[in-house]
Amino acid sequence: MDNQYELLTLFTDGGFMMYPLILCSLIAIGVMLAKAWTLTIAHRDSRRLLREIEDLGMSGRLEEAMTTAEETRGPVAAILLAGLRRLRDRKAGARADGKDIQKAIATTGVIELDFLERGLTVLGTIANVAPMLGFLGTVIGMILAFQAIEIAGQVEPGLVAGGIKVALITTATGLSIAIPVNIGYNYFVTRIDRLILDMEEGAQEVLGLIWDLEDRGERHTA
After folding, report:
1. Digit-coded pLDDT (tens) for 177-214
2. pTM given for the model
3. d(CA 148, CA 156)
4. Tens-digit pLDDT profile for residues 45-95
5. How far is CA 141 from CA 13, 99, 146, 202, in A?
6. CA 69 to CA 74: how far, in whole Å?
7. Rounded distance between C-alpha atoms, residue 54 and residue 23, angstroms
8. d(Cα 160, Cα 10) in Å, to the nearest integer?
9. Which of 24, 34, 52, 141 measures 20 to 30 Å from 162, CA to CA?
């Protein structure tokens, strides 16, 4: 109960600038939770899908593998689908080689990177804006302190204490929001880059196995 009272007191003493700061913190928490969940699911589903596509491809069921990739949402499915289409085109007689498949995977990976990075702009903006809002509260607090001195016509600690309290509370709040958000932003950027790289490598490995199997089948038929 005491802790709750202290938090409410700090919020009240911080002035009206605490409202946008709290709003920033709530938005940041929501985005970070959503992004953490999205990346966890993407990583888990990507491993499962790679195994399924590998099994179908090694069994010669290329069309079924493509259907599985089409019906699955996520970046790894899009990357695999791009490579499988190149394999289908080659089987249909179109000119395609390993470089075409790698190019298709890389291009799709760049597109899916944009999808995975959605929401990071919000985190980056909050990480930059929160300290500025805190410093704005600092300026407002100092204005209030000097205004109290001007009205009283003399300098007394009690007159400036309220304004200085506002300044310190808003500054501390802005930094308390910006620091973890900035850490989360950098973590997600690193995690996304690593995830895309892992998916591209996994997709190339799976499609390479299917490619080799198709080559062997064609040679054996010839």
Report:
1. 999 999 999 999 888 887 777 777 767 766 676 666 55
2. 0.71
3. 9
4. 677 777 787 777 777 777 787 788 777 777 777 777 777 777 776 665 555
5. 10, 62, 9, 56
6. 9
7. 46
8. 17
9. 24
